[in-house]
C-alpha cells in the first residue's frame, strides 16, 4: 500500500481506537521514565499530541517535574523545524497545522536536545520505521540529528513490519516503547 493510502486508513483506525490509545498512554510513559535514555537526558523534545495520539501533556509534566528542559517544535519554511523551550499551554501558538507550538526566538533554538520523542501514526517493530502525518518535517530533522530518538507506541500504532512504502529519506528510530 502506498504511504498516502496507508496514512488515511491508519488515521481512521486511530480515530476508532482513541480510547485505547488514551488508556495506553500512562503505561507507555511509565516505561519511558524508567528507561536509561530518559534518566540520562537533561533536555527533551516532544510535540503536543492530538486526541488520536499517545498523550504528551503528562510526558511534558513528568519531564518538568524531573528538572528536564522541554522543547517543542516550531514549523519553519522549507519543511524545517526549530525546537524551542515550551512556554507553557497558555503561551503556545496554534500553527497552520492546528498544533500548539512556541513562538520563534532564534536565540532560544536548540537542535541538539538529548532526547527526541518522535510522534507518528504507525511504527514497524522490525525496522523502527514510522509514518507521520505527512510533510517530512521529522525525517528532515532526524537526518541531521545525532542524539537519541524514541517513540511511545500504542497497540493500534504497532505493526510487525512496514505495511507502507518505506522511502530512501525515511529515518528509522532508535527505540520503540510498546506495551509488550
Helices and strands, with pairings:
Layout: H1 3-16, H2 18-34, H3 36-40, E1 43-45, H4 57-65, E2 69-76, E3 80-85, E4 93-94, E5 100-101, E6 115-117, E7 122-124, E8 130-131, H5 137-142, E9 148-152, E10 158-159, E11 175-177
Parallel strand pairs: 1-2, 1-6, 6-9, 7-10, 9-11
Antiparallel strand pairs: 2-3, 4-5, 7-8
Quick recap of the structure?
With 180 residues, the chain is of the alpha/beta class. It has helices at residues 3-16, 18-34, 36-40, 57-65, 137-142, and strands at 43-45, 69-76, 80-85, 93-94, 100-101, 115-117, 122-124, 130-131, 148-152, 158-159, 175-177.
CATH topology description = Rossmann fold
* Second rung of CATH, namely the architecture: 3-Layer(aba) Sandwich
Shape type: globular
Name given to the CATH homologous superfamily? NagB/RpiA/CoA transferase-like
Q: Please work out how many helical segments DSSP would assign.
A: 5
Give the count of structural domains: 1
Low confidence ranges: none
Describe the oligomeric state of these chains in a short phrase: single chain
Distance between the termini: 26 Å
In words, what does this structure look like?
The protein has 180 residues and is an alpha/beta fold. The chain has one domain: 3-Layer(aba) Sandwich (Rossmann fold). The chain contains five helices and eleven strands. A six-stranded mixed beta sheet has the order 3-2-1-6-9-11. A three-stranded mixed beta sheet has the order 8-7-10. The longest helix has 17 residues, at 18-34. The two termini are 26 Å apart.
Amino acid at each position: 500500500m502506498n504511504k498516502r493510502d496507508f496514512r488515511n486508513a491508519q488515521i481512521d483506525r486511530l480515530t476508532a481506537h482513541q480510547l485505547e490509545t488514551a488508556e495506553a498512554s500512562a503505561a507507555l510513559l511509565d516505561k519511558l521514565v524508567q528507561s536509561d535514555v530518559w534518566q540520562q537526558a537533561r533536555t527533551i523534545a516532544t510535540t503536543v499530541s492530538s486526541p488520536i495520539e499517545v498523550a504528551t501533556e503528562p510526558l511534558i509534566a513528568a519531564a518538568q517535574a524531573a528538572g528536564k528542559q522541554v522543547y517543542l517544535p516550531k514549523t519553519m519554511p522549507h519543511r524545517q523545524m526549530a525546537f524551542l523551550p515550551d512556554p507553557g499551554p497558555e503561551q503556545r501558538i496554534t500553527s497552520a497545522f492546528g498544533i500548539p507550538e512556541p513562538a520563534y526566538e532564534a536565540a532560544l533554538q536548540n537542535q541538539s536536545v538529548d532526547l527526541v520523542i518522535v510522534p507518528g501514526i504507525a511504527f514497524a517493530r522490525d525496522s523502527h520505521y514510522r509514518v507521520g502525518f505527512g510533510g517530512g518535517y521529522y525525517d528532515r530533522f532526524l537526518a541531521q540529528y545525532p542524539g537519541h530518538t524514541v517513540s511511545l507506541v500504542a497497540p493500534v500504532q504497532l505493526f510487525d513490519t512496514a505495511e507502507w512504502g518505506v522511502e530512501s529519506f525515511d529515518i528509522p528510530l532508535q527505540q520503540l516503547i510498546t506495551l509488550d
